[in-house]
Amino acid sequence: MSQDEEVSIQLEKPSFIHLTQAGVSLVLSTTRGALEVVHWGKALSKTENLADLMAATVESTAHAELDQPHVEGIFREAARGVVSRPALLGHRLGKDFSQLFEITGVQADETSARISFSDRVAHLNAAAMFSFVGHGVLMVSLEVENLGDDFNLEELSVYLPLPDRAQESMDFAGRWIKERQPQRREIQAGQFVREVREGRSSHDYTILQLAMTQGAGFRAGEIWSMGLMFSGNSRHVVEKLQGGRKFIGASELLMPGEIILKKGEKYMTPGVAAIYSDSGIDGVSERSYGWLRSRGDHPTKAKPRPLTLNVWEAVYFDHNLEKLSKLADVAKEIGVERFVLDDGWFGSRRDDTKGLGDWVVSPEVWPQGLGPLIEKVKANGMEFGLWFEGEMVNPDSDLYRAHPDWVLGAGGRVPPLGRRQLVLDLTNEDCYQHVFQQTDKVLSDYDIAYIKWDHNKYLVEPGSMGVAAAHNQTNAIYRMFTELKLNHPGLEIESCSSGGGRIDLGMAIMADRFWTSDCNDALERQYIQRYTQVAIPPEMLGSHIGPTKSHTTGRVHELHFRAISALFGHAGLEWDITTCTKEELSQLKTWSEYYKANRDLIHSGNPVRVDSPDEYFLQGVVSQDKSKALFSYATLQAAAGSRPDALCFPGLDATKSYRIRAVYPAGEPKFIQRTQVAWLDGITLTGRALAEVGVRAPILYPENALLIEIEAI
Length: 713
Ligand code: GLA
Known about the structure:
The protein is an alpha+beta fold. About 20% of the residues lie in helices and about 30% in strands. The N terminus is likely disordered. The site of alpha-D-galactopyranose (GLA) has 12 residues, from loops.
């Protein structure tokens, strides 16, 4: 909200604020002393009588409760008789443990509002900020300011009410190589909490937590979702209170003593993105994509997402100019546009036991520096990318030998190692500067377009100077990315954390790409990408064709299945392509051309995921103007029926005529049938017929895929 647009509303009773954007409304009331959210959901008319709306929502008072009607204000103060978890938990050596915030000011315009509060007894000021940031995405944050002696802040959470018809919740859980698997349940009494205490967002992080109407799916039903704009510890909650009302909430999870506000200091919560949809989960994604794509430096604004080769699974730590040059030659032949040198180029890093922390090109493996490889890569028409893991150190490194005190820890203990590494204390300015300077020097010495920034160990008792430091460490990595980008305009940063361990909405506005998972098995990727894409658009999610036999599962997949699975993201390869057969190379070439011809559609369209039985996924992307669509039909297991379901395509323009056909940019799937379906070479149907009648699926082997093009004629 700019100063000019600000309208100060004089507080008079009744007083309401109605913010709306893109079919979503937020109605706030200050009439009962507290700030209450009267409605968050489908847009209400601007002419709605808000006083009557408020009257409509006042509940009766139950026996065995307090004498006056229940008021669940945004701070949920116990002083108002609220017994749910307060939004603000904190104290001053035990005092001022309970607050009562009086509203002191309201500023609002069409899409945003800031409400100020004060508790003169507890010596605290506070503020609540609500802002529609585009596409109906509501950003909410709370702030508290200490006016007295040290105030120990334990929690500051944003809660929004859910309507009673929100009966189920869905969130995403996972682990290394199996990130973001959906879990769904009825919203029952109590709190269902997803906490992360890893000091990073985690493989187990939900990105968005969803509350939904019963049976809501990808294309239908109402969803109220929330996700924290933060990459550290977090807490997401869906709850049903004793009174029957339900809420969804999110906050940074603060470690004990982590935020002690001195007099005059403030803490502001990370933004909480609240996304409502009346058209199922795809509606949430559409809003989330629209909002993330509106970022000024969203990666597709600079140029199309370059087809990438990452050499990790091709060579691992075996860095050798000759082999890497061969890879660069084959990459050129295929049409790769970005060549990424992964772990192993620096210090004594010949395996994963040593060298982390020493970001100096290793003369042992790179006697002439990285220059010869970079020249080769550039001569072959590709950009060069390089791997870093700046927040980490191996005890067996020059850095650790010189500064063993530069690691996060507590009690004078060295925390347990993970992948033989420890986490550097980036809240220590000297340590931060060391990492920044070394990284900056490599980026200055060489022409590097992109860095993959890894984070392979979660934080264990992350203390600095004796106090918890996960909060400051998270802000330090944001600072690092910001400063590296400032010094190297155009630098693209990929957030990796043993695969998808640091994918969150906070990082989605700092980084340009995520390494979605260390699992390149196409079957696993079907699931991981489908659910990571609930919040994150495909152009930000690295998806590579892995080796024929997956290095993380041992499964063997046909090239076409791996290629179609990798197409719906920021595509690339992670495979020793010098071992490819002639046929594989020619298929990779046609696939690479296909990716380039269709990436604008994939990276700008709206997602469509058809609700289907577990046997298959039918999903794809429809252009904003609905003139083009690309779908993948992937068989995940052997079907129960001998003849498969019809493929129906929602999301198109019902009145337009479309040509639908199957395409094979990386070879045909394996059909297991006696006769073929009749439309694969192309037929013409209206959007309505494609949605309502669909086309019959051919019978494919399990773990195969068919790519389907739909174009308006
Ligand atoms: C992590 C990443 C991988 C690779 C290795 C390198 O596991 O997720 O992609 O970069 O580190 O050590």
